[in-house]
Each structure stands twice: as structure tokens, then as C-alpha cells.
Amino acid sequence: MNNCEVNNELNPIEPESFGEQGRLILKGGRVVDPKNKVDGIFDVEVAGDRVVGTGVEIVPGPSDRVIDCSGLFVIPGIIDIHLHIGDLFDISNNPLIKATCEGVTTALSPGAGNTFMSPSLLGAESDRGLPINTGVYVGAAAALASRLTNDELVGLIKGELDSETALLKLSCNAITNSTAGNMIGIKEHKGHYILPDEAIEKLFDITSRGETIFMTHTQQAGHAEHLAKLSKGRPLHLGHATAAGCGSSGDAVSEFERVLSLVDSNITAEFVSSMLLENYGRHDGLRINPRAQESAFKALSDKKVKLLVSDGQSAAVMKGFGNSEDNIPAIFRLSSLGVLSLTDAVATMTSEAAGFLSLRTGNKIFAERLGHLGKGAFANITVADPNVKRCVYTVVNGKVVSFDGNTLYSGFSAGRFICKHGVLKKTGVGNINLYE
């Protein structure tokens, strides 16, 4: 499939040694860990890249590093499954750095213009050193453009396509072919292209059989309804569903209610964090109708929708409808308004996101190792100040990568690559042209 380390039952990533630096101890913060039903004042112990556990009083040793988290909230690292940070035509990694400083530890980039080369391009950046876990969706048009049959595309997604067929029918680039399956999903976007029904049927076939996410750009209720009809019980994810409640494609309230009515066990949805704030969204993005926002609150309270995303960044070339700086304020606002308990609000960007990734990819490693602070989890941690509602510390795989809004360059080797196959320490692409 590729020359990277795949994290699954057959190839587990072994815990990293914490060496001479000792442990990292986050001391005295309010730990909110939805998956493990923890909410209280505790210490969190990290050794290498893993969480060892939580305790009332963890005594540090002489070589341990201690972070005073008194008065701060310590939560599992934020997982943003819809954050444009490295799409094919982006010109800067600043959006990615910005997300890190705002508490995002895992960002999945759903550019509809991404091609099968995108996993190798972003994977190379990850190999060379990023302070955040990253992954990428491939655009639907690119997924449909090659000569590969449906069965061969399923094989590609599963990592089973042979190199000879790939060279003949996918691309003439061996690197592209060996890493093309390192996607997290496929993104369909009517604003980029209007696909015929037979193409959409092909997308449903390859994503359902290949077990990867099929995300659609959700802004027009009619388009979402059409895809739901074509899904025939197969999984479909409604990206930034709150955009339908902004009035850009008809009456905001009725459009949004029509989209919400589609959500069931196979059709899932996500809400943009910016659109859940007091100002109803960003002026450089889209702003939700106040009545539609109330409907969003009810859908969250009823657990009909369980996922929040930023759909950032507004500073990226691919400008989304929101921004990652609104994630933490949205979590706190949902709790303060009583829409969700604090535990459930935190879960929308931690354990629920990890569970969604495992559900749609068939890879249980995400639910087991991401989105919680239990023993053995990857040490991705967000520490937030509840008074100003912003991130103070971001920890990625046991390394502190940002502090009070500033990037720590010592953490640029912390990030890993996220794809259907798991959590990759290296994709094997980044240093091909550096070493023989």
C-alpha cells in the first residue's frame, strides 16, 4: 500500500519513551474527560506520547516537567474533523499554526479541490514536522477522474490496489499511487461542480464499501435531500449543516429544518462552532438566523447532532464559514446556556469526533487512542482558561506545542498523519528527496 507505518491491530504504534526529560504532569486543573466520565480537580500524567492516567495528587520526580493548571480546564485534545489547513492550493501553513494555538490537536482538511496527490503532499509536511495531527479528504471530482473501476477504487481506499494497476489507471506518479489511499474521506461540493446522479452513486458505492467518510457541502436543503435519497441507507455526512440556516439559499429556518429532518443513523451532521455564538457567526463567513440557531441548540440537546467543527480557517486560501478560535467559546457557551452539560459539550469535539471516525472508517484505533485522557491514549490535550474562553496550552502526542497563543517550535515534530488506516508517525514521503 505504502511505505509508512500503519497503526492498526497488526501494526500498533509502540509508546515512545519519555527519556531524560521525565514525565509531563498537568497539575491541579479541572479535568473533563467525557469518555471516561471524569469531571473534577485532578492531575494528568503523561509519559512519552501516552497518557498514563489521572490522579488526585501525582508526585513529580526530579526530572519531571510540571504545568500548573490551577483554575484551568484540562480536556482531551480538540479534534476538528472539518478544518481547511492544508488544501492543495493553500500557500501558507499559518492556518495550521493558528489552529494549534487555539487548542486543535487533530485537524482534517476537507478541500473539495484536493486530488489523490494531496495525501502525499500534506503527508510530506507532516513527516518534516508539524505541531498538529493532520489528515485530508480527497475531492469527489478527483476521486471520479481516474480510469479505476469501482472495485479498484475500493481496493485503493483499503490499501489493496496493486502498483501495476495504479500506474496504468490512477497516475504515472509512484508516490501518489502508494499514498493515495491515505485519506480520511471524500468531499463532494456542489459549489465546485454539479455531479450527475451516476457519479454520486459511484461515490456512495466506493465510500460505503471502502469504509471511508462521504462528506457533502451542506448549504442548500434541496441538494442535501437529493443526496439523502440517493444514499439508500449508505453513510452520508452533512458538512457544516448550520450553513443551511444562514439564508443564502432560501428561507433560513425552513432550509435548516429540512436538513435536520434528514439526520438518522446513517446520515450524520456537524454544526459550525462560530454559528453557535452570540453574534451568530463570523462576518467573514456566514451568520446563522437566530431562529435557526435555536433549532441547532435543540438538535444538540436532543443528541440528534453530536459533532462541532470550525470549518476554518478564514485566514486560509480556502476560506471556510468559521474559525478555530471559536471552538472553545462555543463549547463553554453550550454549557453555560444549558444546551448541553459541560461534559457533553466537550464531547462534541473530543470523544464523539473520535467515535465518528472509528464508526465511518471501521478502524477502532481512533476511539481507543484519541478523544479521551484514559490510560494508553495518545497524549493530545487542550488546556483552556474558562474566564477568557481561550486555549492556554496545547499538547500533541506528549509535546507542548503552544503556550498562551504562541507556537513552540520545539513541538514541530509532534504531529502525526491521520487516515483511514490509523495514526501514522511517518508517511515515508517527506524525506525522499533529502536522503538517498
Task: Looking at this protein, list some descriptive labels.
single chain, 436 residues, alpha/beta, Urease, subunit C, domain 1, TIM Barrel, 2 domains, nine-stranded mixed beta sheet, eight-stranded parallel beta sheet, 29% helix, disordered N terminus
Topology record:
Layout: E1 24-33, E2 38-47, E3 50-55, E4 65-68, E5 73-76, E6 78-80, H1 94-101, E7 104-109, H2 118-129, E8 133-139, H3 140-145, H4 150-158, H5 163-169, H6 174-179, E9 185-188, H7 197-210, E10 213-217, H8 221-231, E11 236-239, H9 252-260, E12 267-272, H10 290-301, E13 307-309, H11 327-336, H12 342-347, H13 351-361, H14 365-369, E14 381-385, E15 390-396, E16 399-403, E17 406-407, E18 417-419, E19 422-424
Parallel strand pairs: 1-4, 1-5, 6-7, 7-8, 8-9, 9-10, 10-11, 11-12, 12-13
Antiparallel strand pairs: 1-2, 2-3, 5-14, 14-15, 15-16, 16-17, 18-19
Rg from alpha-carbon coordinates: 21 Å
User: Strand tally, please?
Assistant: 19
Q: How many structural domains? A: 2
Instruction: Report the major sheet.
Output: 9 strands, mixed
Q: Supply the CATH architecture of the largest domain.
A: Alpha-Beta Barrel
Shape by Cα distribution:
globular
CATH superfamily of the largest domain: Metal-dependent hydrolases
CATH topology of the largest domain: TIM Barrel
Q: Could you list the spans in which at least 5 consecutive residues all have pLDDT below 50?
A: 1-6
